[in-house]
Amino acid sequence: MSVIREAMEFFTSPFSPFARKIHLVLDHKKLTGDGLAIIDGLDTRNRERLLAKNPRVEVPALVDGDLTVVNSADIASYLEDRYPEHPVFPRDPTQRAIARAWE
Fold this sequence. Notes:
It contains four helices and four strands, in the order βαβαββαα.
């Protein structure tokens, strides 16, 4: 099982297909337990919290320590590199490039 090294915040929304993609990556990598705060970034009560981390106030956004990663493709790639257990992309560079092109 993958273990989150530090607490992370995932700003999401049930209306975002891009955020849903990251939910799937987090689930596949078994990172949805302790250490991951899932926050509805489009809920008006969380707007200022998201604004402080992502000035574009967009979801998905992943906050890992001092780093904020936005854009679902970049978040998936970051999670793949940081948590290589349970890979979502092929290890072979050619196959990985093909998979990323489909993404």
